[in-house]
Amino acid sequence: INEICVQLKAQCDLQNVPYDGIFAALEAGKIDVIAAGINITDERKQNYLMPGPYLRGPLAFIVPAKSTIEGSPASLKGKTVGTVGGSVFEKYMREKLGSGTTVKTYDSMDAAVLDLDAGRVDAVLGEEPQLLVSYIQAKPNTYKVAGSPITDPVYMGQGKGLVVRKADTSLAEGVNKAIDSMITSGKLAEISTKWFGKALPAR
């Protein structure tokens, strides 16, 4: 968001707003843009303008650093895999891994990773950016991503975007142009590498 402000030549006042009140704050005019890793959905686009995407977070399996699991359905046969219940991650596993893999669901990603630490699951499926920052970078040499990230658009969705009010069309257009410029110049890839350790896909 800081780079978008630079691109727009705007003096931005960044505020921390609790997630459960962030859309209400936007609608009340207390903030002008939401930049909180919001997934672009058709439902949200009915009520807001969503410039972007600026990030398309692939799905990935996280495993202990010494694990031999490769992330493929074959390598997960006979294994127990954890993820957040009711999520697109659970949907992927139930549709793609088959009956040979046991799916265990949790209320949060942290809870799933705690069971990974305890050996109660063999792998955890989540969104690669979160896994990289919250677990792999936070505890070096403890975890790794198994195999290649999953980039199937059916499960990745439309990517992450910013959120502005429907009436603020000029602001939304400006943010989109800023994102386009950052992609073209390589600045977005540079920022992604800084925070995630690799250039994640934007679009």
Automatic annotation (TrEMBL):
Residues 1-199 form the Solute-binding protein family 3/N-terminal domain. This is Solute-binding protein family 3/N-terminal domain-containing protein. The keyword Electron transport does not apply. It comes from the Bacteria. Keywords: Signal. Signal peptide: none annotated. Pfam families: SBP_bac_3. SUPFAM superfamilies: Periplasmic binding protein-like II (SSF53850). It comes from Microvirga vignae.
